[in-house]
Amino acid sequence: HDYLLNSDKIKDYEKEIIKKIIIETAKDKIYKFSLEFLCEFLKKHFNKKVIVLVDEYDAPIIKAFQNSKYSNDKTYYQTFLGSVFKGNEENLQKGMLTGVMRIGKESIFSKWNNLDTYGITSTYFADKFGFTEKEIYEILKHFNLNKDVKKIKEWYDGYKFGNIDNIYNPWSIVNYISKVNDGFKTYWVNTSGDSLIRDEIFVGNKERTYKTLEKLIFYCGHC
């Protein structure tokens, strides 16, 4: 958003904040409130409230816990996002966060209100977590891959969100279509890590973890 440096609606001292963020010479306090500043400056420039979309909001939290240097400082992220989504009504029209960890149960968001959470068991947006079967047929028809429907269902179907069955993994579908000559592969496996789970099993409370795993195995065996 460096075009804001040429805006006649933003004051010179505010442009200095933008400059320091761009060239990475700002102080920590500036970075903590940088997203809130951006909302404010965009509102001034366009004279419209801002919509903030944050994908995988929990990825930085996971990275922080992986690095002991930052694991005890939860205030940074609480300020970075908290200042945007709470007390920023003058500049914020609407905000949305997506991630693996449930937002409502995270302590760093405990001060937020007016927050709606839509998980994988919710019926709202259930068909937005991946491609529906109808969309798959249309996609395959477009790329002349109709003959692969059965195999694609075997490899990339199997998800259920809310009340919607047969949701297909979008990352796997896109990769398969773009690399069709390579055949079917487990593309999704390489998109995430298991470091937090491994730490819990081998470093954390082993007894508690093993008991939990035993319960999971027991219940899965009776499904």
Main beta-sheet annotation? 2 strands, parallel
Query: Structural class of the secondary structure composition?
Result: mainly alpha
Bulk shape: globular
Q: Output mean pLDDT.
A: 83
Widest sheet: strand order? 1-2
The gyration radius over C-alpha positions equals 22 Å
* Uncertain stretches of 5 or more adjacent residues: none
Helix and strand element order: HHHEHHEHHEEHHH
Strand content: 5-15%
Q: Helicity, in percent?
A: 40-55%
Explain the overall architecture.
A hairpin with a 2-residue loop joins strand 3 (159-161) and strand 4. The model has no long low-confidence stretch (mean pLDDT 83). The protein has 223 residues and is mainly alpha-helical. The protein has a two-stranded parallel ribbon with strand order 1-2. Strands 3-4 form a two-stranded antiparallel ribbon. Helix content is 44%, strand content 8%.
